[in-house]
Amino acid sequence: MKAVFLDRVDIVSEYDEIIRSPSFQMKVPSVIALREYVQPKPRPAFTRFNVFLRDLWTCQYCGDKFKTHELTFDHVIPKSRGGTTTWENICTACQDCNLLKGNLLPLECGMHPLRKPVQPTTGELQVNGRAFPPHFLHRSWNDYLYWDTELESP
Q1: Res 77: pLDDT
Q2: How many CB atoms lie within 10 A of CB 75?
Q3: What are the structural domains of the chain?
Q4: If both were cysteines, with which of 21, 40, 45, 60 could 91 make a disulfide (CB 3.0 to 4.6 Å apart)?
Q5: pTM of the model as a whole
Q6: Within a 10 A sphere around the Cβ of 97, how many other Cβ atoms?
Q7: Could you tell me if 92 and 52 are in contact, meaning their C-beta atoms sit under 8 angstroms apart?
């Protein structure tokens, strides 16, 4: 939305959802085109979405996949025990596992993350994003992504 208001992108397609303010309303963009190429940062922003993407929406304790609203962050070393909110100490957990682990250390409760939490590269997150099937994305993307199309040889 910020890029739209700063006139840095062109809106190609929109969702049906409308956002409103007291003096303005618009449909939420679903596909945008950058007006200028922006070099991606080598290290992605530390956001909830990026942590879930790194962990492929999989609880790092039980190994089950969940929808976004069913997931939480877990501090591997709890904040109450000196843990920090960083890539290296946060992993994706389902609500049941997070509640079960509580503020215990992995050794105390026998719950260890399936994969050691690390800071991913932007490229790693892009690879993870491509792993999702087409039905995971909004239908407006179908015209721009070719998931099952065989590429022509030169």
Answers
A1: 97
A2: 21
A3: 1-38 (no CATH), 41-130 (1.10.30.50)
A4: 60
A5: 0.69
A6: 19
A7: yes
